[in-house]
């Protein structure tokens, strides 16, 4: 007797048939593109009707999209907030309409009763982890650091800067010589790094670049190479996200360390929404994701292989 079993897709429970609006920032980085893909895939797996709005990096577009979701009477809203301020009014409107809002990957400055929960990493900690790695790697040698900041006014730019500064404080041999926004993009990361190199003796005076995300680091690596220097050795490269390309750069010796940020913020967000919509369960106000340091010692080629197919 031959017994055939048919694979029946299993839907994760709780949100089947629900309509969820997702206001995404844009697609400035590989990490964000992966977050979008995973949020959409996870919605499909759970039978959610996901309404997606790309804000093209503008808060006004996000606010407009959220108002649109409220007008449609969606069951829940996800927002990846481009900047940390200016959300109170629209969140109060969602609350008034009894629509739970979950923040994804960035924090905001607003009373926390205006949203259900925030799924994010501890971004100050990420900055500290990057800074601690550099302090250890540099030892007693003098080290001029240049910093590529994320989008001005965004919580990761504010907090990753703060954490890094805390880590190097008290180590007089390390100082941040230059710091400017590269807007979380490769193109801008490269452009700003080129200007840093020009201003710092053709790059010879720079000991390390700290980038608030891997995409800017990848742009900086290109600029360093074009200046005739070796990224990863002449100039150390430390950044945040853990996208596949940075692991390739680490495998080639061109980047030194990254702090991994999961792009799967939607999984915990959907779980929180499902529980809340079922029986009013209130999740913790902050669902914290892990921040893990990877260096060249962690077999970056193997890590790169495991990252493929994870939404990137
Ligand atoms: O908010 C998370 C940050 O936003 C990621 O580090 C970065 O790549 C991005 O686009």
TrEMBL record:
UniProt-listed SUPFAM superfamilies: Periplasmic binding protein-like I
CDD domains with a match to the protein in the record: PBP1_galactofuranose_YtfQ-like (cd06309)
Domain of life: Bacteria
The name this protein goes by in its record: ABC transporter, substrate binding protein
Periplasmic binding protein domain segment(s): 20-278
GTP-binding recorded as keyword: no
Localisation per UniProt entry: Cell envelope
Keyword annotations of the record: Signal
Keyword DNA-binding among UniProt keywords: no
A GO molecular-function annotation: carbohydrate binding
Family: Belongs to the bacterial solute-binding protein 2 family.
GO cellular component, one term: cell envelope
Alphabetized InterPro entries for the sequence: Peripla_BP_I, SBP_2_dom, YtfQ_transport
Species of the source: Paracoccus aminophilus JCM 7686
Pfam families documented for this protein: Peripla_BP_4
